[in-house]
Amino acid sequence: MDKKKVVKFVVITFVLAWVLETIGSVYLLGHQDMTGKSVFQGCLVVCMFTPILSALLVKADFRGMGWKPKFKGNIRWLFFCAYIPAVVTAAGAALFFLIFPALFDTSGSYMMAQYKAMGLDLDQVLRESGMTYQTYMIANIPGMLFAPFINIFAAIGEEAGWRGFLYPELNKSMGRVKTWIAGGIIWSVFHFPAMLIGGYEYGMEYLGAPWLGLLVFTLMCIFMGIMEEVVYDKTKCIWFPALLHGSINAMATIPQLFMNANSSDTAYYMVLGPLPNGLIAGVPMFILAVIVGAWALKNKGKKVMS
Predict the structure, then answer these.
(1) Around 246, how many Cα atoms within 13 Å sit in the side-chain half-sphere?
(2) Is residue 21 part of a domain?
(3) Nearest partner of 270 among 283, 257, 256, judged by Cα
(4) pLDDT in tens, 19-36
(5) 54, 117, 206, 248: which has the fewest C-beta neighbours closer than 10 Å?
(6) How crowded is residue 61: how many other Cβ atoms within 10 Å of its Cβ?
(7) Is residue 304's pLDDT more than 60?
(8) Is residue 37 part of a domain?
(9) Domain of 93?
(10) Does 246 map to a domain?
(11) HEC letters along the chain
(12) What letters, b where the CB count within 10 A reaches 16 and e where it falls short, cover 191-221?
């Protein structure tokens, strides 16, 4: 492992991302409307490209990352990356709502509250278009099928840096399991300013805030990183982990359609679910990651890249 290159990569990435996250978060604190949320989300999207920029600056070998799409022999991985996140997300949300049934709501109260906070009346929009909230959910299904393939173009900014450069470098000295842990921690810390200042992922008033949120999100990044690294190792194409990353981001919004905004417990238990980054709702994804990781180690020892 080239320690100087790795340290330089991490420092550059953190500085760039943390500055952007801080700017977006501070702006959001002063503008709790659609403009503030748009600026915050915009900063987060730009942050996703800081790992690839840092990799360029440290002169990572981009030629060996597999930029040419490889479909032959990888169709099963294509479907795994695009749609398995929907399955584990649904399973995790079901588990969460089974434990907290009072937080389940099909009336759309949570989504309507989110739109109202941005100055929009979703209920009125739906009425004017002749739709109910239930038909609105059904109408969103086709978009969910295509969303992973759209999100891939933002996710590639992170994946080229994390899975394309950082993980292979760490593995040269640390071995595969330690690489998964160290890489996941680095990936998680990358998001911390947005979480601590802007309430990214869990808000600001959840159970055990802010430390439990940081810990749970770190676990999430470790387990997600396992799956994305294994996918990259098996396909030798950086677009596949980017598709998995993009799909996880897209499918994570599905449980919001069924959240209850009329209960104060919704915000309090956000760190537990129903989104897949919650400690309870994330259990199916954690289990899947362990299975995938164990399978990869059994079939290839501790070597990351061939």
Answers:
(1) 25
(2) no
(3) 256
(4) 999 999 999 999 888 889
(5) 117
(6) 10
(7) no
(8) no
(9) 63-300
(10) yes
(11) CCHHHHHHHHHHHHHHHHHHHHHHHHHHHHCCCHHHHHHHHHHHHHHCCHHHHHHHHCCCCHHHHCCCCCCCCCHHHHHHHHHHHHHHHHHHHHHHHHHCHHHECCCCHHHHHHHHHCCCCHHHHHHHCCCCHHHHHHHCHHHHHHHHHHHHHHHHHHHHHHHHHHHHHHHHHHCHHHHHHHHHHHHHHCCHHHHHHHCCCCCCCCCCCCHHHHHHHHHHHHHHHHHHHHHHHHHCCCHHHHHHHHHHHHHCCHHHHHECCCCCHHHHCCCCCCCCCCCCCCHHHHHHHHHHHHHHHHHHCCCCCC
(12) bbbbbbbbbbbbbbebeebbeebbebbbbbb
Residue 88 to residue 254: CA distance in whole angstroms: 11
Rounded Cα distance between 247 and 20, Å, is 24
User: How much is the pLDDT for 140?
Assistant: 76
As given in the structure block, the two tokens for residue 39 are: 């600026």
Tokens of 122: 């979703």
Residue 120 predicted with pLDDT over 60: yes
Residue-level pLDDT at 215: 98
Number of structural domains the chain divides into: 1
In a domain, 198, yes or no: yes
Output 127 or 56, whichever has higher pLDDT: 56
